[in-house]
User: What shape does this take?
Amino acid sequence: MQTITLKVEGMSCNHCVNSIEGALKEIGASGNVSLPNKSVTISFDEKKLNEAAIKEAIEDQGYDVV
Ligand SMILES: [Cu+2]
Assistant: This one.
C-alpha cells in the first residue's frame, strides 16, 4: 500500500469532496480530501494503480492536479 498527497485546485465544497472521493473509490483507491489544505491524500495498491491513473481520475471530475 502506498500513500501520496496531491495538491488539487478547484475544490470548494462538500460536493467536490464527494466527487473526488467517489471517483477514487471507483478506481479502487481510498481518498481523503482536505479543503483547507487544497489537497487529497490517497492510499492505493501500487500493484494495481499508479499516480498517473489517480491524477486522471481527479482531473476527469473537472479538477486540476498541480
Ligand atoms: Cu464543490
